[in-house]
Each structure stands twice: as structure tokens, then as C-alpha cells.
């Protein structure tokens, strides 16, 4: 603690910024000071520590390996401070922030937000929709909605529902399919990067994916879904992706037997934060909305839905 007492927060912030950005010039610009001021701060803290923290090279300031723990701690610490300040600001504004995958946001969540706003007109929902896995411990996020098998170490995890899949296609194509073996006679739409494959559904039907025919490939599930709506073939879709399309009649399930993939949707959040009221309201609404649609951990599925 004696060493920490001798170091100012300003100096530690300067060290973190230089380590993250790599040069004195970029750090100075980010901090709104001169390059000379940054250089002096680094020299001062190195003198206090009694050792160099960076190697000065023509390419910039290279953090020394022996100081890696310090740099990691500073980066994480300042990220948490920034997130805490942002949360404090949001609590005055009644904002809840959730990170979700783009496809979940576009195909399910945004269509149900009017109901949330009708129930909680004073709360604003901010959606961070990116493919990357955001870290609620370091970012200004109340929740992250994730899917997988886990574990999610260092996070508080609240299970929501199992991922289930079912074959879907345009209604005109579904009318031609009377038994699973008929899938060998129609185009099959595939997403090469999917976290499950056709064996997830076919195993229970006594079929092998090799029996399926060719068909178009698309880079993501959203495009595959649109291809199925357009009549290009049969797509093995996860349930939450097709809920609305089935209800509106744009898609049909020729064989309405849903199979679980072994993956699960969960809400994760930082374990050391209390949830502000807007976040608690959103969590309760989300779980109720999922259960109302048969997706959450509510009443058992009917035999027609399950396996």
C-alpha cells in the first residue's frame, strides 16, 4: 500500500493509456495534454517505482514483460471505473443496457420492445448488438444475453431456456413433405458456421445427414431464414429465429418436432454489482415474455412441440 500511496491516479492513468495506445503522441492526444507532459509522467512514475516500465523503441513505447500484471490491472481497473461512472449516470436517466447478438435483437427482441415500453414508459432500453462477446465486468452493461454450453467463469449466470431446432421452409414446399425421408429430395439450406448441424434433428428420426441433398449455403442464419422464406429449400433453424415467421405464415414446419442442441440461452452480468430498478424491470419482463411464448422455463412443452 505504501507504493500505491506514492503514485497519483493521474500517473497511473497515463501509464495505462501509453501501454494501451503504444506511443506518447497517441496517449497525449487521448489524455488532452502535451507529449512532453506524458513523457514526464512516465519518467516520474518509473523513478518512483525504481524500474523502467517501457522500452523506448522507434516503433513506440513497448511495455516490459515484467510489468504485464500491472498493465492488465490498470486496464481492467480503469475500465471498471468508467463503467461504474456510466452506470451511475444512467441510473438517473432510467436506462437499461443489454448486449445481445444481432440476429436475436433483429428477429425477436425489437418486435417485443413496444410491450416493454407500454408497461414501463419511463425506461429506455439501449441495445448493444455486436457479434463479439462483450464483458459486463469491464463495460457499461447491465446484462449480456449469451448462448452456449458454458461455463462463464467470473460472471453471474441466469439460465433462460434451451436452444431447440426444427426444419422450416416455405408453406408451398412444406406441403410436398410427408415424411423425413422426403428431405433427401429437396434443396437443403445450410449455414456452414452454425453451432449445430442436421444430425441434431435427424438422429432421432433414424436418418444420417449424408442422406440430405445439396442446396445453397449462406454465411449467417438470418440470410438462411430469408432464403427459406423465399422458397429456396429447407433450413434447420433455431426456435427463437422462426417464432414470428411461423406465426405470420411465412414459414411452415413440415415436421414440427423440436430437438434440443445442448446449448442454452443465459443472462450473464457482473457479480459484484447490484441491479438498478430499470434492469430489474427489464429482466422480469424478458423472462415473462419468453415464458408466454413457450420459450422460457415455464410449463412443460406439449408432446407436439418436444421430442
UniProtKB/TrEMBL annotation:
It comes from Pacificitalea manganoxidans. The keyword DNA-binding applies. PROSITE patterns: HTH_LYSR. Residues 7-64 form the HTH lysR-type domain. The keyword Transcription regulation applies. This is HTH lysR-type domain-containing protein. GO terms for biological process: DNA-templated transcription. Belongs to the LysR transcriptional regulatory family. GO terms for molecular function: DNA-binding transcription factor activity; sequence-specific DNA binding. It comes from the Bacteria. Pfam families: HTH_1 (PF00126), LysR_substrate (PF03466). Keywords: DNA-binding, Transcription, Transcription regulation.
